[in-house]
Amino acid sequence: MNNAVVESTYVAYPTYKFENTSLELARSQWPNYDDQHYLRGCKWSPDGTCLLTVVRGAGMHVMELPSDLYAGDTLLTSRPIQPLVPAVSVPESGLIYDYCWYPGMNSANPATCCWVSSGHEGPIHLWDAFTGDLRCSYRGFNSTDQLEAAISVTFSADGQNIFCGYKKNVKIFSTGRPGREFIEYPVTHPASCITASLAHPGVVAIGTWKNTIELVSQSDGTFRHLCKLAGHKGGITTMAFSLDGMRLYSGARKDKEVICWDLRVPGRPLFCLNREANSNQKITIDISQCGNWLVTGGTDGKVQVWNVQESTAPSTHIQLPLHSDCCNGVSLHPYRPVLATASGQHHAQDPLHHSRITPTYENALCMWWVGNQQEDPDLITAIIKAATNS
Protein backbone atom coordinates (compact mmCIF):
# COMPACT_ATOMS: atom_id res chain seq x y z
CA MET A 1 0.00 0.00 0.00
CA ASN A 2 1.20 3.50 -0.83
CA ASN A 3 2.25 5.44 2.26
CA ALA A 4 3.09 8.59 0.33
CA VAL A 5 -0.51 9.45 -0.43
CA VAL A 6 -1.83 8.62 3.02
CA GLU A 7 -0.42 11.77 4.61
CA SER A 8 -2.63 14.01 2.44
CA THR A 9 -5.86 12.25 3.39
CA TYR A 10 -8.95 14.44 3.10
CA VAL A 11 -11.25 14.77 6.08
CA ALA A 12 -14.13 16.68 4.43
CA TYR A 13 -17.19 14.74 3.32
CA PRO A 14 -17.41 14.30 -0.46
CA THR A 15 -20.06 15.86 -2.67
CA TYR A 16 -22.10 13.10 -4.28
CA LYS A 17 -23.74 13.41 -7.69
CA PHE A 18 -25.53 10.08 -7.95
CA GLU A 19 -27.98 11.52 -10.46
CA ASN A 20 -25.18 11.79 -13.03
CA THR A 21 -24.26 8.77 -15.10
CA SER A 22 -21.74 6.90 -12.99
CA LEU A 23 -18.25 6.94 -14.46
CA GLU A 24 -16.36 3.65 -14.20
CA LEU A 25 -12.85 4.14 -12.86
CA ALA A 26 -11.31 0.70 -12.44
CA ARG A 27 -12.23 -2.97 -12.76
CA SER A 28 -10.99 -6.46 -11.96
CA GLN A 29 -12.61 -9.59 -13.38
CA TRP A 30 -12.64 -13.25 -12.30
CA PRO A 31 -13.72 -16.31 -14.35
CA ASN A 32 -16.87 -18.07 -13.26
CA TYR A 33 -18.33 -21.08 -14.99
CA ASP A 34 -16.07 -24.03 -14.10
CA ASP A 35 -14.78 -22.88 -10.70
CA GLN A 36 -17.64 -20.57 -9.67
CA HIS A 37 -15.27 -17.78 -8.66
CA TYR A 38 -17.93 -15.20 -7.80
CA LEU A 39 -17.30 -12.26 -5.46
CA ARG A 40 -18.71 -11.97 -1.96
CA GLY A 41 -18.90 -8.25 -1.27
CA CYS A 42 -16.29 -5.51 -0.89
CA LYS A 43 -15.26 -3.07 1.86
CA TRP A 44 -13.18 0.11 1.81
CA SER A 45 -10.54 0.37 4.51
CA PRO A 46 -11.31 2.97 7.22
CA ASP A 47 -8.56 5.27 5.90
CA GLY A 48 -9.72 4.87 2.29
CA THR A 49 -6.41 3.72 0.84
CA CYS A 50 -7.51 0.28 -0.27
CA LEU A 51 -10.44 -2.00 -0.97
CA LEU A 52 -10.89 -5.55 0.34
CA THR A 53 -12.90 -8.23 -1.44
CA VAL A 54 -13.44 -11.98 -1.09
CA VAL A 55 -13.73 -14.26 -4.12
CA ARG A 56 -15.25 -17.70 -3.61
CA GLY A 57 -12.52 -20.27 -4.21
CA ALA A 58 -9.92 -17.61 -5.04
CA GLY A 59 -9.11 -16.06 -1.66
CA MET A 60 -9.09 -12.50 -0.35
CA HIS A 61 -7.65 -9.54 -2.26
CA VAL A 62 -6.66 -5.97 -1.39
CA MET A 63 -6.82 -3.35 -4.16
CA GLU A 64 -5.32 0.12 -3.84
CA LEU A 65 -7.21 3.31 -4.64
CA PRO A 66 -5.71 4.72 -7.91
CA SER A 67 -3.35 7.58 -7.04
CA ASP A 68 -5.10 10.15 -9.28
CA LEU A 69 -8.29 9.83 -7.21
CA TYR A 70 -6.83 11.17 -3.98
CA ALA A 71 -7.39 14.80 -4.99
CA GLY A 72 -9.62 16.88 -7.21
CA ASP A 73 -13.32 17.74 -7.08
CA THR A 74 -14.10 17.00 -10.73
CA LEU A 75 -13.16 14.13 -13.03
CA LEU A 76 -12.97 14.13 -16.82
CA THR A 77 -15.40 11.73 -18.48
CA SER A 78 -12.61 10.66 -20.86
CA ARG A 79 -10.55 9.11 -18.05
CA PRO A 80 -9.70 5.53 -19.11
CA ILE A 81 -10.78 2.55 -17.02
CA GLN A 82 -7.79 1.18 -15.10
CA PRO A 83 -7.27 -2.52 -14.40
CA LEU A 84 -7.31 -3.40 -10.71
CA VAL A 85 -4.37 -5.58 -9.71
CA PRO A 86 -4.27 -6.97 -6.15
CA ALA A 87 -1.61 -5.37 -3.97
CA VAL A 88 -2.06 -8.21 -1.48
CA SER A 89 -3.68 -11.62 -1.99
CA VAL A 90 -4.44 -14.33 0.56
CA PRO A 91 -5.08 -17.66 -1.21
CA GLU A 92 -7.73 -19.04 1.14
CA SER A 93 -9.40 -21.93 -0.69
CA GLY A 94 -12.24 -22.52 1.78
CA LEU A 95 -15.47 -20.58 1.92
CA ILE A 96 -15.11 -17.23 3.73
CA TYR A 97 -18.21 -16.46 5.77
CA ASP A 98 -17.47 -12.90 6.87
CA TYR A 99 -14.67 -10.32 7.14
CA CYS A 100 -14.09 -6.87 8.63
CA TRP A 101 -11.37 -4.19 8.65
CA TYR A 102 -9.77 -3.08 11.91
CA PRO A 103 -11.61 0.21 12.65
CA GLY A 104 -8.41 2.11 13.57
CA MET A 105 -6.67 1.12 10.35
CA ASN A 106 -4.24 3.79 9.09
CA SER A 107 -1.66 3.05 6.40
CA ALA A 108 0.79 5.45 8.04
CA ASN A 109 0.92 2.99 10.94
CA PRO A 110 1.48 -0.56 9.59
CA ALA A 111 0.61 -2.14 12.95
CA THR A 112 -3.03 -1.03 12.48
CA CYS A 113 -3.32 -2.36 8.92
CA CYS A 114 -5.19 -5.64 9.28
CA TRP A 115 -8.52 -7.32 8.84
CA VAL A 116 -10.28 -10.27 10.46
CA SER A 117 -12.06 -13.12 8.67
CA SER A 118 -14.00 -16.27 9.49
CA GLY A 119 -14.16 -19.33 7.28
CA HIS A 120 -15.53 -22.84 6.92
CA GLU A 121 -14.32 -25.25 9.62
CA GLY A 122 -11.59 -22.91 10.81
CA PRO A 123 -10.73 -20.35 13.48
CA ILE A 124 -11.01 -16.57 13.12
CA HIS A 125 -7.88 -15.19 11.43
CA LEU A 126 -6.26 -11.75 11.70
CA TRP A 127 -4.44 -10.87 8.46
CA ASP A 128 -1.70 -8.31 7.77
CA ALA A 129 -2.85 -5.88 5.06
CA PHE A 130 0.73 -5.07 3.94
CA THR A 131 2.08 -8.59 3.54
CA GLY A 132 -0.95 -10.87 3.56
CA ASP A 133 0.62 -12.86 6.39
CA LEU A 134 -1.43 -14.45 9.15
CA ARG A 135 -0.83 -12.49 12.35
CA CYS A 136 -2.81 -14.61 14.79
CA SER A 137 -5.94 -16.70 15.29
CA TYR A 138 -8.92 -16.72 17.66
CA ARG A 139 -10.47 -20.11 18.35
CA GLY A 140 -14.04 -20.63 19.45
CA PHE A 141 -14.97 -23.98 20.99
CA ASN A 142 -18.41 -25.40 21.71
CA SER A 143 -19.65 -27.22 24.82
CA THR A 144 -17.95 -30.47 23.72
CA ASP A 145 -14.62 -28.67 23.19
CA GLN A 146 -14.81 -28.89 19.41
CA LEU A 147 -13.57 -26.04 17.22
CA GLU A 148 -16.43 -24.05 15.69
CA ALA A 149 -16.43 -21.76 12.68
CA ALA A 150 -17.87 -18.27 13.24
CA ILE A 151 -20.74 -17.35 10.92
CA SER A 152 -20.19 -13.60 11.33
CA VAL A 153 -17.46 -11.29 12.68
CA THR A 154 -17.01 -7.61 13.46
CA PHE A 155 -14.82 -5.39 15.59
CA SER A 156 -16.09 -3.29 18.45
CA ALA A 157 -16.16 0.44 17.75
CA ASP A 158 -12.79 0.97 19.47
CA GLY A 159 -11.23 -2.17 17.98
CA GLN A 160 -10.46 -3.65 21.39
CA ASN A 161 -12.76 -6.65 20.93
CA ILE A 162 -13.91 -8.98 18.16
CA PHE A 163 -17.57 -10.07 18.17
CA CYS A 164 -18.12 -13.46 16.54
CA GLY A 165 -21.49 -14.99 15.80
CA TYR A 166 -21.98 -18.73 16.24
CA LYS A 167 -24.94 -21.10 16.12
CA LYS A 168 -25.81 -20.84 19.81
CA ASN A 169 -23.95 -17.78 21.09
CA VAL A 170 -21.90 -14.70 20.36
CA LYS A 171 -18.29 -15.00 21.50
CA ILE A 172 -16.20 -11.93 22.30
CA PHE A 173 -12.43 -12.14 21.97
CA SER A 174 -9.95 -9.51 23.14
CA THR A 175 -8.13 -8.31 20.01
CA GLY A 176 -4.82 -8.17 21.85
CA ARG A 177 -5.18 -11.67 23.28
CA PRO A 178 -5.41 -14.33 20.53
CA GLY A 179 -6.15 -17.92 21.41
CA ARG A 180 -9.21 -19.51 22.97
CA GLU A 181 -10.11 -17.11 25.77
CA PHE A 182 -13.51 -15.50 25.27
CA ILE A 183 -16.73 -14.53 26.94
CA GLU A 184 -20.05 -15.41 25.39
CA TYR A 185 -23.63 -14.28 25.15
CA PRO A 186 -26.25 -16.97 24.40
CA VAL A 187 -28.61 -16.54 21.45
CA THR A 188 -31.68 -18.56 20.49
CA HIS A 189 -30.84 -18.77 16.79
CA PRO A 190 -27.55 -18.67 14.79
CA ALA A 191 -26.05 -15.16 14.71
CA SER A 192 -25.79 -14.57 10.97
CA CYS A 193 -24.87 -10.88 11.10
CA ILE A 194 -23.31 -8.55 13.69
CA THR A 195 -22.61 -4.82 13.65
CA ALA A 196 -21.42 -2.39 16.31
CA SER A 197 -22.61 1.18 16.83
CA LEU A 198 -19.91 3.84 16.45
CA ALA A 199 -22.04 6.52 18.09
CA HIS A 200 -22.81 4.38 21.15
CA PRO A 201 -19.78 2.20 21.97
CA GLY A 202 -20.82 -1.09 23.51
CA VAL A 203 -24.15 -1.29 21.66
CA VAL A 204 -24.21 -4.23 19.27
CA ALA A 205 -26.92 -5.47 16.89
CA ILE A 206 -27.13 -9.25 16.42
CA GLY A 207 -29.07 -10.49 13.38
CA THR A 208 -30.15 -14.12 13.16
CA TRP A 209 -31.16 -16.67 10.56
CA LYS A 210 -34.61 -16.61 12.22
CA ASN A 211 -35.24 -13.09 10.80
CA THR A 212 -34.93 -11.34 14.18
CA ILE A 213 -32.50 -8.68 15.45
CA GLU A 214 -31.44 -8.32 19.06
CA LEU A 215 -29.78 -5.20 20.43
CA VAL A 216 -27.47 -5.69 23.40
CA SER A 217 -25.20 -3.47 25.45
CA GLN A 218 -21.83 -4.96 26.32
CA SER A 219 -19.27 -3.59 28.77
CA ASP A 220 -16.81 -5.09 31.26
CA GLY A 221 -17.74 -8.61 30.20
CA THR A 222 -21.42 -8.22 31.03
CA PHE A 223 -24.39 -8.06 28.67
CA ARG A 224 -27.70 -6.26 28.89
CA HIS A 225 -30.60 -7.00 26.55
CA LEU A 226 -32.01 -3.78 25.07
CA CYS A 227 -34.71 -4.79 22.60
CA LYS A 228 -35.72 -7.28 19.92
CA LEU A 229 -36.76 -6.35 16.37
CA ALA A 230 -38.84 -8.55 14.08
CA GLY A 231 -40.20 -7.74 10.64
CA HIS A 232 -38.08 -9.41 7.96
CA LYS A 233 -39.23 -12.40 5.92
CA GLY A 234 -35.79 -14.07 5.76
CA GLY A 235 -32.61 -14.45 7.76
CA ILE A 236 -30.69 -11.22 8.43
CA THR A 237 -27.65 -10.79 6.16
CA THR A 238 -26.65 -7.12 6.44
CA MET A 239 -27.07 -4.24 8.92
CA ALA A 240 -25.77 -0.71 9.39
CA PHE A 241 -26.21 1.91 12.12
CA SER A 242 -26.85 5.52 11.19
CA LEU A 243 -24.16 8.06 11.98
CA ASP A 244 -25.91 9.23 15.17
CA GLY A 245 -26.77 5.68 16.22
CA MET A 246 -30.50 6.45 16.39
CA ARG A 247 -31.41 4.28 13.40
CA LEU A 248 -30.59 0.78 12.29
CA TYR A 249 -30.94 -0.36 8.69
CA SER A 250 -31.25 -4.08 7.95
CA GLY A 251 -31.63 -6.42 4.99
CA ALA A 252 -32.37 -10.14 4.74
CA ARG A 253 -32.07 -13.00 2.27
CA LYS A 254 -34.95 -13.48 -0.17
CA ASP A 255 -36.47 -10.28 1.22
CA LYS A 256 -36.92 -7.24 -1.02
CA GLU A 257 -37.22 -4.78 1.86
CA VAL A 258 -34.49 -2.80 3.59
CA ILE A 259 -36.03 -1.83 6.92
CA CYS A 260 -35.21 1.34 8.85
CA TRP A 261 -35.68 0.98 12.61
CA ASP A 262 -36.01 4.03 14.84
CA LEU A 263 -34.19 2.80 17.94
CA ARG A 264 -35.85 5.45 20.10
CA VAL A 265 -39.20 3.74 19.37
CA PRO A 266 -38.11 0.22 18.34
CA GLY A 267 -41.54 -1.41 18.31
CA ARG A 268 -42.12 -1.17 14.56
CA PRO A 269 -40.23 -0.13 11.38
CA LEU A 270 -39.93 3.58 10.64
CA PHE A 271 -40.04 2.94 6.87
CA CYS A 272 -39.08 0.31 4.29
CA LEU A 273 -37.06 0.63 1.09
CA ASN A 274 -37.36 -1.75 -1.86
CA ARG A 275 -34.62 -3.62 -3.70
CA GLU A 276 -34.35 -6.87 -5.67
CA ALA A 277 -33.17 -9.71 -3.42
CA ASN A 278 -34.52 -13.06 -4.58
CA SER A 279 -31.61 -15.28 -3.50
CA ASN A 280 -30.02 -16.50 -0.26
CA GLN A 281 -26.84 -14.61 -1.08
CA LYS A 282 -25.74 -11.76 1.19
CA ILE A 283 -26.44 -8.42 -0.52
CA THR A 284 -24.91 -5.66 1.53
CA ILE A 285 -25.95 -2.11 2.34
CA ASP A 286 -23.74 0.86 3.20
CA ILE A 287 -24.16 4.39 4.54
CA SER A 288 -22.02 7.38 3.60
CA GLN A 289 -19.78 8.92 6.24
CA CYS A 290 -21.93 12.07 6.22
CA GLY A 291 -24.93 9.91 7.09
CA ASN A 292 -27.09 11.22 4.24
CA TRP A 293 -26.94 8.43 1.68
CA LEU A 294 -27.81 4.75 1.87
CA VAL A 295 -26.80 2.40 -0.97
CA THR A 296 -27.58 -1.25 -1.61
CA GLY A 297 -27.07 -3.75 -4.40
CA GLY A 298 -29.58 -6.19 -5.83
CA THR A 299 -29.92 -9.44 -7.71
CA ASP A 300 -30.92 -7.43 -10.79
CA GLY A 301 -27.44 -5.82 -10.92
CA LYS A 302 -28.76 -2.37 -9.99
CA VAL A 303 -27.54 -0.15 -7.16
CA GLN A 304 -30.31 1.65 -5.28
CA VAL A 305 -29.50 5.00 -3.63
CA TRP A 306 -31.65 6.92 -1.12
CA ASN A 307 -31.20 10.19 0.73
CA VAL A 308 -32.02 9.12 4.29
CA GLN A 309 -31.33 12.42 6.09
CA GLU A 310 -35.07 13.15 6.14
CA SER A 311 -37.06 12.32 9.28
CA THR A 312 -39.57 10.28 7.30
CA ALA A 313 -39.35 7.91 4.35
CA PRO A 314 -36.84 9.30 1.81
CA SER A 315 -38.27 11.07 -1.21
CA THR A 316 -35.00 10.99 -3.20
CA HIS A 317 -34.40 7.63 -4.87
CA ILE A 318 -31.78 7.02 -7.58
CA GLN A 319 -31.29 3.77 -9.48
CA LEU A 320 -27.93 2.92 -11.08
CA PRO A 321 -27.82 -0.05 -13.52
CA LEU A 322 -24.14 -0.88 -13.03
CA HIS A 323 -23.91 -4.68 -13.45
CA SER A 324 -25.30 -7.41 -15.69
CA ASP A 325 -25.35 -9.93 -12.82
CA CYS A 326 -26.16 -9.80 -9.11
CA CYS A 327 -24.57 -6.80 -7.36
CA ASN A 328 -23.86 -8.32 -3.94
CA GLY A 329 -21.47 -5.74 -2.51
CA VAL A 330 -21.51 -1.93 -2.22
CA SER A 331 -19.11 0.31 -0.30
CA LEU A 332 -18.84 4.11 -0.29
CA HIS A 333 -15.36 5.58 0.06
CA PRO A 334 -14.94 7.37 3.43
CA TYR A 335 -13.82 10.73 2.00
CA ARG A 336 -13.94 10.62 -1.82
CA PRO A 337 -17.00 10.36 -4.14
CA VAL A 338 -16.09 6.83 -5.17
CA LEU A 339 -18.43 3.83 -4.99
CA ALA A 340 -17.07 0.29 -5.01
CA THR A 341 -19.26 -2.58 -6.15
CA ALA A 342 -18.88 -6.36 -6.38
CA SER A 343 -20.91 -8.62 -8.67
CA GLY A 344 -21.50 -12.34 -9.12
CA GLN A 345 -23.48 -15.25 -7.76
CA HIS A 346 -23.67 -19.04 -7.94
CA HIS A 347 -25.12 -20.30 -11.22
CA ALA A 348 -26.47 -23.79 -11.72
CA GLN A 349 -24.36 -25.79 -14.17
CA ASP A 350 -25.47 -28.32 -16.76
CA PRO A 351 -24.14 -31.61 -15.34
CA LEU A 352 -24.58 -33.43 -18.67
CA HIS A 353 -23.07 -30.58 -20.70
CA HIS A 354 -25.91 -30.57 -23.20
CA SER A 355 -25.05 -27.04 -24.22
CA ARG A 356 -21.96 -26.47 -26.35
CA ILE A 357 -21.90 -22.81 -25.48
CA THR A 358 -20.11 -21.95 -22.24
CA PRO A 359 -21.92 -19.00 -20.62
CA THR A 360 -19.94 -16.01 -19.44
CA TYR A 361 -20.97 -14.41 -16.16
CA GLU A 362 -19.88 -11.09 -14.74
CA ASN A 363 -17.78 -11.45 -11.59
CA ALA A 364 -16.24 -8.03 -11.24
CA LEU A 365 -14.89 -5.64 -8.65
CA CYS A 366 -15.46 -2.08 -9.86
CA MET A 367 -14.86 1.49 -8.73
CA TRP A 368 -17.26 4.23 -9.88
CA TRP A 369 -16.97 8.02 -9.72
CA VAL A 370 -20.18 9.47 -8.23
CA GLY A 371 -19.02 13.09 -7.97
CA ASN A 372 -18.79 16.06 -10.33
CA GLN A 373 -17.92 15.20 -13.93
CA GLN A 374 -16.64 17.31 -16.79
CA GLU A 375 -16.44 16.66 -20.49
CA ASP A 376 -12.89 16.67 -21.86
CA PRO A 377 -12.62 19.85 -24.01
CA ASP A 378 -9.90 18.30 -26.20
CA LEU A 379 -12.12 15.29 -26.89
CA ILE A 380 -15.08 17.54 -27.78
CA THR A 381 -12.87 19.54 -30.15
CA ALA A 382 -11.64 16.36 -31.83
CA ILE A 383 -15.20 15.07 -32.30
CA ILE A 384 -16.36 18.38 -33.83
CA LYS A 385 -13.33 18.48 -36.12
CA ALA A 386 -13.91 14.90 -37.28
CA ALA A 387 -17.59 15.62 -37.96
CA THR A 388 -16.71 18.75 -39.93
CA ASN A 389 -14.13 16.94 -42.07
CA SER A 390 -16.56 14.16 -42.90
UniProtKB/TrEMBL annotation:
Keywords of this entry: Repeat, WD repeat
Q: Name one GO cellular component term.
A: Cajal body
Biological process (GO) annotations held by this record are: Cajal body organization
The record's listing under PROSITE patterns reads: WD_REPEATS_1, WD_REPEATS_2
List, alphabetically, the Gene3D superfamilies matched. YVTN repeat-like/Quinoprotein amine dehydrogenase (2.130.10.10)
Q: Name one GO molecular function term.
A: RNA binding
The record ties this protein, via SMART domains, to: WD40
- In the record for this protein, the WD repeats are positioned at 275-316
**Which family does the UniProt entry place this protein in?**
Belongs to the TCAB1 family.
- Can you name this protein? WD repeat-containing protein 79
